Sequence to fold (381 residues):
Amino acid sequence: MNKAQKVLIIPDSFKDSISSIEFCAIAKDAILKISPQTHIQTIPMADGGEGSIDVFRHINGYDYQTVRVKNPLGKNITTEYCIQKNTDTAMIEMAKASGLQMISKNQRNPMKTSSFGTGQLILDAINSGVKKIILFIGGSATNDIGVGMLDALGFKFYNYEDEIFSGQVNNIPKIVRIERPRIVKRLQEISFVVACDVSTRLLGTNGATYTYGKQKGANEEQLKKLENYLRHFSQVAKKTSPTDYSNSEGSGAAGGVGFSSMTFLNAKYQSGFELISELLDLENHIKLNSYDLIITGEGRIDGQTRKGKILMHLGNMGKETSIPVIAFGGTVDDNLKELRLKGITELVQISSPNESIEEAIRKTEFNLKKAIRNKIQKYLN
Fold:
């Protein structure tokens, strides 16, 4: 095997642990201690979830706008989105307003969390005069099918008595009619894209609620309620929109924000990784730089990894360019270890099987350094 001279480090974040930027720094330091002469390029990556707009922070042509919005539990916070100046395109990261990482584990409850803050970001971008909005919707704390977001944009929700309700989760079963906002014409003039790392549909055992509800804090009883709420709202939405998007790819992303974005904002769905890699011209970058090794990683490598996650796409690129790809995960599904992912040379679990999740998260930096030292030395001079 050829010894690597040029290495690309291009990870996703490890949820509740380290960011993609921190992964890059840890991995680079570990490699240089083994092989100081190795040329290393780092690209902190994202696939539509946390860190998506941070990818562009050090690239010319992007401005960052600071905004006061409500977090998932209604607390006022300061956050940001970015604008690509030459295209008048706003890039909004849902995780920066309505993100799971913003609230502690004991506060996570999708019966109470709201996407309202994400709607506030969209409204600010609209008022700034942009022509296109890219909404990265991964990493959300919510399962409200976007009623909070729609509420912030001025949509009104009515019951049978024609009373208006706010866009809160527990109001969803009362809604029988949805009225579009005064800014509907401006919404129609803007091109919307929803981008994320999964292609989940809205309903069913593989839908929004049953796939992600538990990690957002829902118990079994709440899962049943939330599934019924989403089904009810999708039925009501048919009165407003001629197209039913509940079975569309990505409609279940972000607890149904994908569905509401498609239904009420006429948003198009796109893979988060593919969109970001297009903006970065990543495929050409990899080909032109003739890397000898690609290092990537994410917190959990499991069945969802096959559904649009960074590793799958990098594996494809590695296979096309004959570059070995090593993927490090906090945990790695045993079935994937045997089956391998297309184009991934090695799947490496950095945590010990005996470690609890809490301990593994706490020791992420130590475990990652150790795993890199042990696994990639054979690729380096």
Notes: The chain has two domains: 6-45+281-379, 54-273. The two ends are 11 Å apart (CA to CA). The longest strand covers residues 62-70. The CA atoms of residues 47 and 273 lie 4 Å apart.
